[in-house]
Inverse folding.
């Protein structure tokens, strides 16, 4: 899932300067889980905007606004309220905000109320978010026991450990386990320690040239 955090309200208000009528779009998936763009958060920011003299013409929470079909469905269901608005405020990740903008035929200004932080997994309690994927376009999980050194090692080492480990903890952050020690332990459990002897070449950063485009056949 995509992890987001709320922007300061003052920053949102500054972005909306000169816009009176606002339509708010939340997110029923990732942002709801992060408690940044669910119904409670949408209603809260609606109230705060109205205190500042804004008119909230309506709001909607598509399950996943990053999916164009769901965004267009929300537009269709709220057509009158959206047509009355001057701008969108999106409480979703950057993908959701851009989907809203690209699917709006009138091309109103689209403003975002969240910062997009990282891709994560949830712990078993469903309450703690862990960064696990850097979306680096060159996955090495097959060689590292399913543990990503790019996202879990602060130095992003492809050949580790660095030698700065103490008590199994990373020298950059003593509260974090050394990613390469975790990789070593995992290989030992799986009987694949020979993978630790493989020297990996530097990352091919040309694969990160943006923007990416993939055609699904």
């Amino acid at each position: 899932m995509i992890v987001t955090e709320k922007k300061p309200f003052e920053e949102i208000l500054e972005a909306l300067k000169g816009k009176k009528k606002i339509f708010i779009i939340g997110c029923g998936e990732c942002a709801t889980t992060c408690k940044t763009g669910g119904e409670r958060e949408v209603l809260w920011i609606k109230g705060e905007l109205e205190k500042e003299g804004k008119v909230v013409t309506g709001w909607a929470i598509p399950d996943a606004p990053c999916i164009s079909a769901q965004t267009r469905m929300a537009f269709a269901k709220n057509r009158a309220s959206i047509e009355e608005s001057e701008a969108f405020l999106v409480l979703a990740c950057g993908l959701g905000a851009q989907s809203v903008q690209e699917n709006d035929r009138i091309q109103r200004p689209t403003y975002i109320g969240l910062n997009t932080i990282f891709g994560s997994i949830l712990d078993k309690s469903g309450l703690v978010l862990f960064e696990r994927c850097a979306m680096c376009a060159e996955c090495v999980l097959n060689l590292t026991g399913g543990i990503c050194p790019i996202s879990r090692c602060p130095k992003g080492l492809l050949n580790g450990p660095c030698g700065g480990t103490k008590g199994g903890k990373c020298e950059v952050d003593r509260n974090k386990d050394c990613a390469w020690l975790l990789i070593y332990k995992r290989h030992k459990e799986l009987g694949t320690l020979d993978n630790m002897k493989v020297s990996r070449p530097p990352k091919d950063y040309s694969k990160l040239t943006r923007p990416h485009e993939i055609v699904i056949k």
User: Anything to note?
Assistant: The mean pLDDT is 91. The longest strand covers residues 114-122.
